[in-house]
Design a protein that fits this description.
Layout lengths: L19 H20 L2 H4 L6 H12 L3 H16 L4 H34 L1 H10 L5 H17 L4 H16 L11
Helix pairs in contact: 1-3, 1-4, 3-4, 5-6, 5-8, 7-8
Length: 184
């Protein structure tokens, strides 16, 4: 009588072997990681800690335009990633995504305040100055009025863009308060 379960003999009786489904999930995760690396821009790719062979393979994959060849190179990048510890790479990608989400949130806050200031004028400016006394209300008021005049005349929104940049700079120093739906 053989105490080793059927199918485990070829693994030397090691019960720690993961299932075929688990190995497939892990392989697909590494392949997904390789695809994320290939989709990065060169400047973002430079921020990810990669071994030189992996970095070279990713750069080669980015240059390939043929779908079949690109897919083959993707498999090669995944193979190289399986030989290394993927955790630092995953962490670096998560950090990059977190920075992108923060930048997007900053853009949205500045846009929301710009739209609120253009729609409501001085009451919204007073509310902003209550919450943020670190900026010059006169400059913002002038930009709001100029943007409203440009809008009324059908001119390009140069002052609205400048107001947006001013609000974004304010948000970079300290985040602007979020605008709720009922405030709109």
């Amino acid at each position: 009588m053989n105490p080793v379960p059927k199918g485990k003999e070829k693994f030397g009786g090691n019960a720690d072997i993961s299932s075929k489904s688990q190995r497939r999930r892990e392989a697909l995760a590494v392949k997904s990681l390789a695809a994320r690396l290939i989709d990065l821009s060169p400047s973002l790719l430079a921020q990810v800690p990669l071994d030189e062979p992996v970095r070279s393979a990713v750069i080669d994959a980015q240059r390939i335009r043929s779908n079949v060849a690109r897919k083959r190179q993707l498999q090669f990048v995944a193979k190289l990633l399986r030989r290394t510890d993927p955790e630092p790479v995953v962490q670096a990608l998560e950090d990059l995504e977190h920075l992108a989400r923060r930048a997007t949130a900053r853009q949205h806050r500045a846009e929301a305040w710009r739209d609120r200031l253009l729609a409501l004028g001085d009451p919204a400016l007073g509310e902003l100055m209550e919450l943020r006394a670190d900026s010059d209300p006169q400059v913002i008021r002038q930009l709001v009025r100029k943007a409203q005049q440009e809008s009324a005349r059908g001119l390009p929104p140069a002052a609205a863009r400048k107001l947006f940049r001013t609000l974004r700079e304010m948000d970079e120093s300290e985040p602007l308060p979020a605008i709720t739906d009922r405030q709109l």
